[in-house]
Amino acid sequence: MSARPSLKDHSIERLRERFGQQGIPPYRAEQVAGWLYRKGVDDISAMTDLSRELRETLARDWETTALEVESLHHSVDETVKAILVARDGARVESVLIPEEDRTTLCVSTQVGCPLACSFCATGKLGLTRNLSTAEIIDQVCRMRAVLGEGRRITNVVFMGMGEPLLNFDNVIEAIRLLIHPKAFAIAPRRVTVSTVGVVPRIEPLLRSVPVNLAVSLHATTDEVRNELVPLNRKFPLDVLLGTLRDLDCITRQRPVFFEYTLIAGINDSPEDARRLAPLLRGIPSKINLIPMNPHEDSPHASPSEAVIDCFLREVAATGLRVTLRRSRGRDIQAACGQLALRSGREAAA
Predict the structure, then answer these.
(1) I need a labelling partner for 162 at 20 to 30 A (CA). Which of 6, 83, 214, 228 fits?
(2) Catalytically active residues, by annotation
(3) Domains in the chain and their CATH numbers?
């Protein structure tokens, strides 16, 4: 494992500081960022608007890559899942979801996850470590190279392996690169960070970067949510929702996106649907309903189409803004809740 720092570990502002400490003119940070993020060039020797001496210095002192593509898996619906390997051998997954008017990249923030949500395959892995900023950003760089000609990544969602708010500093630094006009230049409204409810870090996230917040809700009572999302025992619904209700930066223009995984016989009753509106009263929000994606690490199943349709109608009748989100990439274990490094397990077997 290299001891050299990575250029991709730093926002442009921080890279300016680091360059200044090295005696490199700070404005060179913008030039380097242009090559790395706008042009997709990792080879420092190809950065031709830098002097040869500076290129040699940067190549000697800095890394430009953090991940390599180990394998690609293509779904019948054109979703692409990559297993990416870090310099220490750690593996993570990223998922490209092409649609007619956009291409969304789902990125991971941890190797595994410590929160053990009962419906999520990643939680069964436990936590190995946090990803560095460079390892988060290099998912974007590596997956951008997978895209066909004429396509670009338009949206980034922090919904892959891990809990983003438990890797707060590195996630914030990565977001700053994603939205910086001289880096990836992705509009902030097209970046979404999902959390199961790490309450103390929600407001700092929203004050630090102007991105969307998604909250994995999945239940309308503490009794059920305690089983699905064990972190609920530390931050129960009244604490989580009370915090969201009190934040003035959450508005109809910047609502919370509540993710609700529909699980057969657990949280899919008409009573659950009707409880959502009073539960979320006072929080500008949208609801995304996601039928459970079955996998070998969970006993849970998706409800029938009739139950899903009934739940959707009941929620819509309460006046909440609600969408039924059909999962992509289920045939390659790339759908929501399915990321568990299957090929990594097979290789180790």
Answers:
(1) 6
(2) 93, 336
(3) 7-61 (1.10.150.530), 67-348 (3.20.20.70)
